[in-house]
Amino acid sequence: MMYQKVSLVTNATGYAGPGATMGLHEDKWIVAAADPSFVDPNEAASFVAGRADLHTFYETDPLALVAAVLKRFGRIDALISNDIVPDPIRPIDGSSASELREVLEQGVVYPFELSQAVLPHMRERGSGAIIFVTSTTARFPMAQVGIYGAARAAATGYAISLGQAVGPENIQVNVVGPNWMKNPTYFPDGWEELMPGFKPKLDNEVPLRRLGRPDELGALIALLASQKAMPLTAQYINFAAGAYP
Known about the structure:
The protein is α/β, with parallel strands linked by helices and about 240 residues long. The protein has helices spanning about 15-25, 40-50, 60-75, 95-125, 145-165, 190-195, 200-205, 215-225, and strands at about 5-10, 30-35, 55, 80, 130-135, 170-180, 235-240. The protein has a 7-stranded parallel sheet with strand order 3-2-1-4-5-6-7, with helices on both faces. The mean pLDDT is about 95.
C-alpha cells in the first residue's frame, strides 16, 4: 500500500523553516508546518498560499504539537527541529545566569522535549528521521555569541548521542549547522545594512562568496528526511558556504 510521508517542521516561518518546508513539499511530503504565528488564521493562510499538502499548526507545547499532528495524519516520518534562539550576540562576560537559562530553554530543552515526544511513535513504526537545525557555532565557538554557541553545542551533542542510541531501531538522526545562509531570522533582507561588517567577510573569507539559499538547505533536509542515505546518521553537517571546514 502506498502512502504519503508526513514531516513536522517547527518554527516554519523562521531560520531554516521556509527552506525546509519548501524542500519537503517539492519532494511530495505532507508537511506539518508549526509556528506560533499561525494562531492567526491570516498568517497561516498566507504561509500556505494555496499549496496542497502543506498544513499549519500553532501548538507550542512539544507534547501537544506532536499529538495534534498524529491526530490529523496518524504518523510522523520526519521531524525537523528548527530551533530559533533570538538575540545571538550576547557576550559571555557580563551575561546573567537567567539569560543562560533562557537560551538553554529555547535551544536545548525544547528540541529535547520535542524529539522525546516523537520517538515513541517512530519506535513503534520501526523507522523515522530526526533533523536538528543548530548552527556552526556549535563546533566553532565565537566570543561574541558565547551563550548562543553554548546552547547550540549542547543541542548538537544531544542529537549526535541520540543518533547513536536509536540507530539500531532504524531511526536516523542528524544535525545541520547553517551559517552564511539567507534566512529571515539571522540573515534577513537588507542584512548588508543591518550587519555592515559581515559583507567584507563574505566577499573575502567565505569560499562560495555568497549566502546559501533556503532552497539549497531544503534540498539537504529533504534528502536526510528521506532515509535514502541511512548510513549518514549521528553526524553534524556543516552548511556554511564552505566556511569553517
